[in-house]
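Researcher: We are triaging several targets before committing to wet-lab work. For this one, the compound of interest is S-adenosylmethionine. I'm pasting the protein sequence and the ligand SMILES. What I need is the predicted three-dimensional arrangement of the protein with the ligand bound, expressed as structure tokens, so it can go straight into our comparison scripts without reformatting.
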Amino acid sequence: MPRLHPRVLHQAHKSDTLLPLVLRATRDLTSAKNELRWLRDFVAEPQRNTGNILDNWAARRKLRQLCVERAKGKPLQYIMGTEYFGDLEIACKPGVLIPRQETAASVTHLMERLQKSKLLPEHVKLLDLCTGTGCIPLLASYELVQKYSRKGRLEAVGVDISSRALSLAERNLRRLSQDGTIRIEPPSSSLSFIRADILAEADHNPSDCVSLMTALQLYEETQQSNDPTADRKGGWDILISNPPYISPSAFNRTTTRSVKRYEPKLALVPKDADASQYPGIDPGDIFYPRLLEIAKQVDARVVLFEVADLEQAGRVAAMAQQQNIWTVIEVWRDNPSQADDYGGSEQTSVATGIKVLGRGNGRSVFAYRGGAKA
Ligand SMILES: C[S@@+](CC[C@H](N)C(=O)[O-])C[C@H]1O[C@@H](n2cnc3c(N)ncnc32)[C@H](O)[C@@H]1O
């Protein structure tokens, strides 16, 4: 990382003696000033300090401590405890991946497309694999129920292997329901979080985390016993996943120090041990054949998988093509609803017959099957 020029540090110090600390993390003055302002507001909020407004001296001391943490590279979201994901403020904590804006943009775009299309049945079932903070099913539910006032039933389930992630997802669900941001009211809508290992095809060892199919079966049994009259036949209409997709070598070469130090590797890199089960597959791609297989098993009509870039998008789109079950496969960039960098709204380049939509880096692979147009 290049050193900051002493002139820039001097300029920052003249503006505020704490600014050089934040500048060490942000590397640019405008971002540093914004972050310092947010941190100052954060320290001034009485509820962050168990109901007390800190006196000037205590507030300054607290602010300095947070700026020192920031200077060491701790993400602002872990310091302040939240991050915006679309319209939702999602709680974050170390050990669980911080939700990214690009993921939110894909989810928002998907919900808009599905709402406009005739693809969604009366009772929609949405499965989010590798749910982390639960941000994806929370935003999808918010978009469909609140934003589009969709009639009919919405049943969403988020799955993760990490107990820490699942307890944060539950906390996010409680918090956003209690403050009225989202309305999840059974039986018209429900959102559950369950623990499973998505890569496990069977349950070999009872002490391990169960496989997805076992976890889904247990979930179905619970739903059926809660409402014995319900018709629980049928699969999961929408399957979304933002899986770990960075290969170990890319992690070592390109991942920033802050991400490496503070965000969980389990969320970023598929476990090394799993690579041997998928010969010939790029180590960063391990989750995708499994996700596509699951899509078939649960009879998904629509899938949306996040990827690292256009190259990975091309490989995943080709895997989906090989399944021969999808009516349309598309690659979406970071901002899928915007016109692309070259002026048009779509571009065919990644693999034969695959449209690339939007502006920015390659971000996700979308596919649907069925007669209606999504
Ligand atoms: C890239 S993060 C995505 C988190 C969240 N969906 C988001 O977009 O911010 C990937 C998540 O996959 C989970 N994970 C990793 N391996 C898994 C596995 N074998 N089965 C289930 N979840 C897994 C991690 O715990 C992590 O929460």
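Researcher: Any quick observations?
Model: The radius of gyration is 22 Å.
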